[in-house]
Design goal:
By secondary structure, this protein is α+β, with helices and mostly antiparallel strands. It has five helices and twelve strands. It has helices at residues 4-18, 129-134, 140-145, 155-165, 178-197; strands at residues 22-23, 25-28, 44-45, 48-52, 55-59, 64-68, 73-78, 86-92, 95-101, 107-111, 240-244, 247-251. The strands form four sheets. The protein has a four-stranded antiparallel beta sheet with strand order 2-8-9-7, covered by helices on one side. The longest helix has 20 residues, at 178-197.
Length: 257
DNA sequence: TCATCCCTGTGG
DNA sequence: CCACAGGGATGA
């Protein structure tokens, strides 16, 4: 479930709690293979806490603990175990990080170093965007979801970004005009930073929580995602839902062309 | 670029 | 019962 804004919210909350602290132990409660974990020597100081795309990185001494929450993972901070299916506990002197994961799809790895095939971050320089889009015939919605092309955008924010940019999600990436690419390049960081400011999106049936257990707030600001049949906030035309790149996609058939 | 799978739960 | 859920790897 978590996309870049949710992961960033989680990392920002965990950083002051674990960065610079000594990781005293790792308990694996769900019998699922966690690659490399047997090579982790404890205790190990957390040198740095960061995000790359939708990955959470805890840089240790040595190596890096990588967490990807996939669909239903949560990282919760506390002194006592929270409700839910706890898969992993990272123990510190003053509290613990719990990985709770209903669907057990989350991935945890301990690697000597983080190497990724991820595309550039969407909050950085986007001057490369026109060239990259010109090389692809994928529908722009699917292109935004492809982590090798741009890292961190997921299904909610792909719909929200394209609404903000006024671009039909079906459009082939290479069909966007230079002007449209410019509008898109501004919409991407705008939507994502607003969502970070809102502490992420917690839908009604969503698993996402901040590490404190609090809900996100950006669900109140969504324009199209999950709103099929409801009026477009700009022109009142009913929002439509379609399947693009195998995922539900929401858009305004009037504003997005 | 699509279907399929991973896993579990919920809602129609 | 089937469809679907904010992700992504894989193989055709």
């Amino acid at each position: 479930m978590p996309e870049l804004p949710e992961v960033e919210t989680i990392v920002r909350a965990l950083r002051p709690r674990v960065q610079g602290r000594r990781l005293l132990g790792v308990d694996v409660l769900d019998p699922v293979l966690i690659p490399g974990l047997d090579g982790l020597s404890i205790p190990s100081r957390v040198r740095k806490t960061s995000r790359r795309g939708k990955y959470i990185l805890l840089e240790l001494e040595p190596g890096v603990l990588l967490v990807h929450l996939r669909m239903s993972g949560r990282l919760l901070w506390g002194k006592t175990p929270p409700e839910g299916r706890i898969r992993l506990v990272l123990r510190f002197a003053h509290g613990n990080v719990y990985l709770v994961d209903q669907r057990r799809l989350a991935q945890v790895k301990y690697l000597p170093r983080f190497e990724d095939g991820l595309g550039p971050e969407p909050l950085g320089d986007l001057s490369w965007l026109p060239q990259a889009l010109a090389r692809s015939r994928m529908p722009i919605k699917g292109w935004l979801l492809d982590q090798r092309k741009i890292a961190g955008i997921g299904n909610i924010y792909a719909s929200e970004i394209l609404f903000r940019a006024g671009i039909d999600p079906h459009r082939p990436a290479n069909s966007l005009t230079p002007k449209e690419v410019g509008v898109l390049a501004r919409a991407i960081p705008k939507v994502l930073t607003e969502a970070i400011a809102g502490k992420g999106t917690t839908l009604a049936d969503s698993e996402y929580r901040q590490p404190t257990g609090e809900l996100g707030g950006f669900q109140l600001r969504l324009s199209v995602y999950g709103r099929a049949g409801k009026p477009c906030p700009v022109c009142q035309t009913p929002i439509r839902r379609a399947k693009i790149s195998g995922r539900s996609t929401y858009f305004c058939p009037s504003c997005q062309t």
